[in-house]
Write a structure and sequence with these properties.
Blueprint (H helix, E strand, L loop, with lengths): L19 H4 L2 H11 L5 H11 L4 E5 L3 H6 E2 L2 E6 L2 H7 L5 E4 L5 E9 L12 H13 L3 E5 L4 E6 L2 E4 L3 H35 L4 H28 L4 H11 L2 H12 L11 H10 L2 H4 L2 H7 L18 H4 L7 H11 L2 H6 L2 H5 L6 H23 L1
Parallel strand pairs: 1-4
Antiparallel strand pairs: 1-6, 2-5, 3-5, 4-5, 6-7, 7-8
Helix pairs in contact: 2-8, 3-5, 7-8, 7-9, 7-18, 8-9, 8-10, 8-13
Length: 381
Amino acid sequence: MASNDRAAAPGKSGWGFPSRRDLGGADSLMRASLSAVAPGTALRDGLERILRGNTGGLIVLGMDRTVESLCTGGFVLDVEFTATRLRELCKLDGALILDKDITKILRAGVQLVPDSTIATEETGTRHRTADRVSRQVGFPVVSVSQSMRLIALYVDGQRRVLEDSAAILSRANQALATLERYKLRLDEVAGTLSALEIEDLVTVRDVTAVAQRLEMVRRIAAEIAEYVVELGTDGRLLSLQLDELIAGVEPERELVIRDYVPEPTAKRSRSVSEALAELDGLTHSELLELSTVARALGHTGAPETLDSAVSPRGYRLLAKVPRLPNTIIERLVEHFGGLQKLLAASVDDLQMVDGVGEARARSVREGLSRLAESSILERYV
């Protein structure tokens, strides 16, 4: 999930800082921007040098014709980027322009003249210019305030103040502790669901509780992933802990929905992708209501229907059988139509499915039997 967001440090070969047009959204651009200015990068080192030197700075992280049209005066440099050069050049009045790879300083001491009609809530001259330029050109702009002693990142209308690693780590560790508690509860309800599936006693409420917990874990993990991006090299341990905690959560979320999304009818139809999108779009308060989560999954959501019986198709349990390809899982579910028939199937019955030979049929039969035994034992022992 977060692995793609944890980009390589600026200045590394092949790494390019994207514009809004490249990424297709301000949120993606903000994550890439935070990665570019995270602790451990040369750019962050330069920004902190500026702050310690009690000078200000205005830095545009990208150059194209639009940026060039906003520049007046200054010097054309085209020199290699270093933290010390950034610090020294910010002693000059005016802004610095870097290339989008953050490997070169292209211009220094320039005056930026953005469109004055662009709305901004900033008051200081430097911050107002940074906000307007970022909105106009689509590249991130960094403003270092001498008087306020802060570094602000402007990305397409969004403003983020860069904090000290210790403050971010404190919040991240609190979120990680919350994630651990939620993951523990998720494992409990998921284990209960597995046992109920074996006994064919699943209700809409049971499924909804698992889907709810999966979504909660996913959202907390996404918040921690943002902290990992902001922390840069300081977030490596946090990243490892996060990856361990959320391993398998995203596939499990999809498998639960595939197992229980209702069959399409004349009145109601909900695909797996639509159900995933519905869950993703729920607000925090809506996610706390089981009836609302049930509706997102395609069920009616009425309180009296939460205790209605439902039967899984078998995707989730089959996915736990070792070395069973997705294509074979699809064929098994299509052939038998439900988990209870799969559990009752003999080796000979399983061999009737295309692509399932005797060895694989025995593997499936033994795998399902072991899963059934362990689920029952975990529930009642």
